């Protein structure tokens, strides 16, 4: 039995699905209970410092399990392990950890695990290897929706972000490999495929073939079948009219654009090294709205970046009012050692940032509630995803990525249904299957 715990983003979830694929082929079953496991693996995330602290705390707690079950293999992988200082700390202070490998070593996992079991020695493999390995088995968590990585790494070096340092430079999979995997997923009955990359708009850079992300989308969209195609994450500096036209003209691509803007102030965007301005961002949004009238927009925002004043923050507020996002992923800036922004002076207190954050949430709640209210009475095609254990309703998702809850039989999970929207509850809708 294997107990796999995944921290962080969808890329980590996709990596864990590959590790599970290898283990499944080797005959492993999976458990959520670490006490029952022969292998306990944490796939870690380095994005935020407090996330790292949590991982160290959870790894420390495994010491007792190892004492009770000395034969269990304890393994750590993911972005955190790509930082030498972290791997060194694990080596010195957590002697019960048997296996450590970085994001570049996933394709070597079977060999590393086997060697650790046979030789009993601790193995640490965190060397950089920017190659892309195909034909890695994948055991997806869901049978009808799945992640499909199209590229790895990032070249953007936003000043607050550790990703380029731990996941390496951008490298794309060949279009042939991506399209073949998409076709196999559609033939296997997948209803939702999400193309994944730190910056999908850069897809194709460095490949021998001359291909853009828009062209990749068009080729997948041409595959016959009943499915919806999503992608994340897009960078505004690389979001082209061609991409928006492709979404508008496609048959299967969701009418949803997740375009992180991070700050409404051009001054702060410059300090973040985002390489676009407020005006440029708004011009992309205007184009998207003109080409895709029912487009659903979401974004990421960081509040309290070093040097940000209340005036800068007000520019963020005015931008979200202007765009009317359907939802936002909001974060208070947290210092990430190893990034340029960590060295910048920060004069605003945490208390002050907390107040700005509350103001932001309140403003966005009102916007989302208004957007959802305007959908009452409309009919939406949704994918039925799961039961909400709290209220027994089925949770579904529109093409625009909005949750709709319906009272219906759970045999509908994994199917598309037409739903009439009857009620708006802030950013969640209620409806009935037609
Ligand atoms: S685009 Fe910026 S925020 Fe996104 S992964 Fe790359 S460096 Fe990090």
If helices are DSSP runs of H or I spanning 4 or more residues, what is the number of helices? 12
- What level of helicity do the residues show? 25-40%
- Please give the CATH architecture of the largest domain: Alpha-Beta Horseshoe
Give the ordered list of helices and strands.
EHEHEHEHEEEHEHEHEHEHHEHEHEEEEE
State the fourth-level CATH superfamily of the largest domain: tm_1862 like domain
Q: What's the pLDDT, averaged over the residues?
A: 93
User: What's the domain count?
Assistant: 3
How large a portion of the residues is in β-strands, by DSSP E? 15-25%
Runs in which pLDDT lies below 50 for 5 or more consecutive residues are none
- Main sheet record: 5 strands, parallel
Global morphology: globular
**Distinct ligand kinds:** iron/sulfur cluster
Query: What topology, given as strand order, has the largest sheet?
Result: 1-2-3-4-5
Q: Determine the N-to-C terminus distance.
A: 43 Å
Regarding CATH, which class of the largest domain? Alpha Beta
The class by helix and strand makeup works out as alpha/beta
By CATH, the topology of the largest domain is pyruvate-formate lyase- activating enzyme
Q: Please compute the radius of gyration using only Cα atoms.
A: 22 Å
Strands, total number: 18
List the helices and strands and how they pair.
Blueprint: E1 2-6, H1 10-25, E2 39-44, H2 49-68, E3 73-78, H3 84-93, E4 99-101, H4 109-119, E5 123-125, E6 145-149, E7 151-152, H5 163-167, E8 171-172, H6 175-187, E9 192-196, H7 213-221, E10 228-232, H8 241-249, E11 256-258, H9 266-271, H10 278-291, E12 296-303, H11 310-323, E13 327-332, H12 350-373, E14 379-387, E15 394-398, E16 403-406, E17 416-425, E18 428-433
Parallel strand pairs: 1-2, 2-3, 3-4, 4-5, 6-9, 9-10, 11-12, 12-13, 16-18
Antiparallel strand pairs: 7-8, 14-15, 14-17, 15-16, 17-18
Helix pairs in contact: 7-8, 8-10, 11-12
The structure holds iron/sulfur cluster (SF4).
